[in-house]
Input
Amino acid sequence: MVAPFTCPHCGAHDYNVVLTGCDVAGATVEEEFLWDPTAADYTSSGALIVDSASVEAEKAQAFCAQCETDISEALARYEEQQSGGSA
Ligand SMILES: [Zn+2]
Output
């Protein structure tokens, strides 16, 4: 059983992790193109890695999906608790 991460700021359980300076092997990348009739051009969501064999990143930052607070430190503590049992 896994307890969900809870944002210390707003109590939400969903979060996004942003990795920068990545060294990615065997990746599948997806990019979404949306037609913008006002600009008469496509807008892109940017390239998203949907799967990869391995990812090494210089820096990882986590953000709450609800209030967008930087929750990197709180999430690191949560992950320690999950791997370290009831400690
Ligand atoms: Zn939050």
About this structure: DSSP finds one helix and six strands in the chain. Residues 7, 9-10, 12, 64, 66-67, 69 surround zinc ion (CB under 6 Å). The helical segments are 72-83. Residues 16 and 86 are 25 Å apart (CA to CA).
